[in-house]
Amino acid sequence: MASTSRTPTGRGRGRGGRGGGSSSLPPPPSTLTLIIEEFFIVVYEDPLVKKYALTKKIAYYLDGQEPAKVYLRAADYGPRLWTVEVLFDGPGRMYLDKGWENFAIAHGVDLGCFVHFKYEGDDVLTVKVFDGTMCRKYYSDDEDTDDESDDNVKPCIHPL
Fold first, then answer.
1. Do the beta carbons of residue 134 and residue 113 sit within 8 Å?
2. Distance between CA atoms of residues 152 and 111, nearest Å
3. Is 111 exposed, middle or buried (0-12, 13-18, 19+ CB in 10 A)?
4. Distance between CA atoms of 47 and 104, rounded to whole angstroms?
5. Is the Cβ–Cβ distance between 114 and 124 less than 8 Å?
6. Which residue of 47, 71, 72, 143 has the fewest CB atoms within a 10 Å radius of its CB?
7. Which spans does this entry mark as compositional bias, Acidic residues (predicted)?
């Protein structure tokens, strides 16, 4: 009879064992690459100022790339992109500049709003705007229609 190699527990080193195979555990945190895909800002100051500061982490994430522009797309709104110039004035200091004011007006960004950004790559950020009650704002494109009805506005139901 052929002899097989056994571990001290009596189990062989075949498939599914705890032998020298690859682990399904994630790598330790020190080996993970920092990837910033989503972030949000709380609007504490007038959103209609010419330049508006973003978080330091996204500025550090884009360090070296420093795009001259980003393209904002309202989530669930279609393919329209809003071109917004970007300023960097030091490490961790990134601002949305020319074009931000137009986007903020069109999408109801106001004091107390939370603005969620998702980096899609190629300098495109998908944006969701939440009001002070933490309800998402929905909007319609008024450029194509003169109808001022609220048919495209979804109500927010906030439990008390």
1. no
2. 23
3. exposed
4. 7
5. no
6. 143
7. 141-150
Please say whether the beta carbons of 114 and 42 come within 8 A. Answer: yes
Amino acid identity of residue 15, one-letter, is: R
Domain that holds residue 117: 40-130
CB-based burial label for 118 (10 Å; 0-12, 13-18, 19+): middle
Residue 50: CATH number of its domain: 2.40.330.10
Q: Find tokens 């052929």 and name the residue.
A: 2
* pTM of the predicted model as reported, rounded to 2 decimal places: 0.65
Q: How many independent structural domains does the chain possess?
A: 1
Residue 111 confidence (pLDDT) above 80? yes
Place of tokens 């004011």: 101
Cβ pair 21, 7 in contact under 8 A: no
Tokens 């986007």 locate to 103
